[in-house]
């Protein structure tokens, strides 16, 4: 597999050096049986600029500094999202109490801990987002960070799974006749948080396709 990939990359480079267009290269590779995804990947390794030799595109890279920044960013994001949901859940419990449960002390402790976490984690998340955003605006190549991409896709995975579980919980509650106001509000809150996180980071990944 590695040898085949190297052969493909070498062919694309040689063809570009000979003056072949990207469409001509793509057609030749398609006729030879290469998958469109493989062809696009090989062609994307070289910038579409007018120069005497093929100009390589920036490749994904691994940086200890990026690992630190993005680990702090996504850790504070997870903490903020979880404790925002926890705080709203407790407020819903307070607004729609269950007579069978005594939650006075538990409510106070949970709310205090969630508020404390949000007061610390969310500002750190915002500061890291602003800093990383400015760095990427100055150097678009930073979007190629391996750590950034892995953690972004991991976040999309977590948000997607959370949304699926949320919908399953809603359907199960409706089928079981447990769709109380408190139950439905909690499901909505969890779904909104998951959708916002998923939508934002999916949009952020789409920017990679638009920024050279």
Topology:
Blueprint: H1 2-17, H2 22-31, H3 36-43, E1 46-47, E2 55-56, H4 64-95, H5 104-138, H6 146-175, H7 181-210
Antiparallel strand pairs: 1-2
Quick structural gist:
By secondary structure, the protein is mainly α.
What does this structure look like?
With 212 residues, the protein is mainly α. It folds into 2 domains: 2-56; 64-210, no CATH class. The chain has helices at residues 2-17, 22-31, 36-43, 64-95, 104-138, 146-175, 181-210, and strands spanning 46-47, 55-56. The mean pLDDT is 85.
Instruction: Give the amount of beta strand, in percent.
Output: under 5%
Distance between the termini: 28 Å
What is the H/E string? HHHEEHHHH
Average pLDDT score:
85
Low-confidence stretches: none
Features:
212 residues; mainly alpha; 2 domains; two-stranded antiparallel ribbon; 7 helices; 76% helix
């Amino acid at each position: 597999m590695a040898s085949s990939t190297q052969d493909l990359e070498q062919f694309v480079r040689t063809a570009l050096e000979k003056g072949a267009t990207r469409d001509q290269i793509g057609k030749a590779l398609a006729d030879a049986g290469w998958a469109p995804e493989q062809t696009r990947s090989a062609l994307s390794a070289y910038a579409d600029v007018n120069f005497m030799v093929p100009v390589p595109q920036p490749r994904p890279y691994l940086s200890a500094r990026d690992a630190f920044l993005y680990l702090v960013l996504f850790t504070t994001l997870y903490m903020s999202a979880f404790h925002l949901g926890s705080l709203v859940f407790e407020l819903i419990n307070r607004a729609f109490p269950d007579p069978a449960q005594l939650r006075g002390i538990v409510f106070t402790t949970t709310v205090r801990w969630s508020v404390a976490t949000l007061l610390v984690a969310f500002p750190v998340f915002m500061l890291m987002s602003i800093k990383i955003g400015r760095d990427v605006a100055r150097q678009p190549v930073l979007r190629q960070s391996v750590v950034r991409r892995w953690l972004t896709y991991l976040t999309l995975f977590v948000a997607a799974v959370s949304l699926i579980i949320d919908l399953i919980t809603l359907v199960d509650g409706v089928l079981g006749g447990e769709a109380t106001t408190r139950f439905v509000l909690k499901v909505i809150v969890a779904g909104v948080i998951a959708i916002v996180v998923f939508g934002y980071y999916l949009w952020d990944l789409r920017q990679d396709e638009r920024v050279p």
